[in-house]
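Budget justification aside, the reviewers requested a transparent look at the raw inputs and outputs of the sequence design task funded under Objective 1. We therefore reproduce one unedited record. The lines immediately below are the structure tokens for a 323-residue chain.
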């Protein structure tokens, strides 16, 4: 078996059905295993889920059930325990896969060298994007961490990677953080990219179709209470990102990667009326992009406090000292 797809699910059978049918449409037979981890859905949803899987009988779809709602990270980690494929792919229940394109790419993807620990696919696409095509010169080829750092490569998006199950087995410390309510997928990728030595890329293989049928956990507006609940996860993420940045300070685009995340999260927190005191710990980490234009007094103070942060200064010193 080559590929295991792990799908966490909670009370969303209708959209899960779309996701499962898109995978079945690839017609990969014994080469594909699908593990659905139901995270304590209601009784009515469980009945519908059982009926859905029965309708898709003949495909290797395994259902794992949590007795109570334990969260998406717990569910992904548990699904990994049931995986049998050479690679694992984490897919969200409310999205789908381009089954036709996966079938076209399969002769190329299935020849991925055995030593590859992570296979990076093309970026996510929207439902209305052109699908079902593959370039004549499609190939899986080695890539580098520097290439993954380039803008718009979605390098910290876990849905754009197939990950070697053997690699994960040899690194049991790398799992989804069950104590994080957001950014757990990016933390997971940071740990993987720090350990992986053999990374390949299938450029142009845009298999993952992102839908907006259900709101993201990070969707606005962010109240003070919601921001306070997210802050520990944000702090944990920036701690990992800072360490990653120090380890790979020589890579091109590494500061751009850091800036992008700081820009998004610091701006959202500032605009949503979060008390300035909640930024205290973040002052030790983030770097705000030079084009961060403050729209109020809080953002103005925020920008001027961190624009010349220790991280930027140290990285420049390190780069200069190694020239």
């Amino acid at each position: 078996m080559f590929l295991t797809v792990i799908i966490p699910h909670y009370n969303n059978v209708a959209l899960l059905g779309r996701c499962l049918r898109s995978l079945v449409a690839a017609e990969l037979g014994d080469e594909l295993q699908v593990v659905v981890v139901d995270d304590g859905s209601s009784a009515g949803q469980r009945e519908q889920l059982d009926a859905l899987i029965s309708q898709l009988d003949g495909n290797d779809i395994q259902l794992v059930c949590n007795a109570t709602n334990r969260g998406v990270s717990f569910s992904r980690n548990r699904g990994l325990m049931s995986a049998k494929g050479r690679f694992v792919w984490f897919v969200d229940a409310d999205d789908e896969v381009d089954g036709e394109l996966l079938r076209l790419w399969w002769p190329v993807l299935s020849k991925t060298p055995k030593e590859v620990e992570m296979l990076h696919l093309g970026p996510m696409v929207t439902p209305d994007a052109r699908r079902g095509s593959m370039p004549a010169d499609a190939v899986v080829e080695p890539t580098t961490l520097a290439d993954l750092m380039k803008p718009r490569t979605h390098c910290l998006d876990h849905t754009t990677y197939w990950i070697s199950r053997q690699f994960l087995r040899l690194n049991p410390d790398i799992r989804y953080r069950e104590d994080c309510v957001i950014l757990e997928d990016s933390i997971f990728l940071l740990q993987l990219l720090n350990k992986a030595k053999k990374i390949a890329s299938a450029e142009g293989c845009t298999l993952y179709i992102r839908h907006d049928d259900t709101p993201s956990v990070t969707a606005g507006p962010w109240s003070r209470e919601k921001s306070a609940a997210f802050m520990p996860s944000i702090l944990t993420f920036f701690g990992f990102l800072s360490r990653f940045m120090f380890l790979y300070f020589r890579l091109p685009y590494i500061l751009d990667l850091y800036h992008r995340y700081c820009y998004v999260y610091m701006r959202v927190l500032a605009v949503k009326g979060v008390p300035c005191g909640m930024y205290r710990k973040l002052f030790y980490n983030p770097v705000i992009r030079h084009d961060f234009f403050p729209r109020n007094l809080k953002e103005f103070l925020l920008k001027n406090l961190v624009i010349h942060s220790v991280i930027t200064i140290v990285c420049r010193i390190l780069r200069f000292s190694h020239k």
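Strands lie at 3-9, 32-39, 61-66, 87-90, 96-97, 118-120, 141-143, 161-164, 199-201, 208-209. The longest helix spans residues 224-247. Computational costs for records of this kind are itemized in the attached budget.
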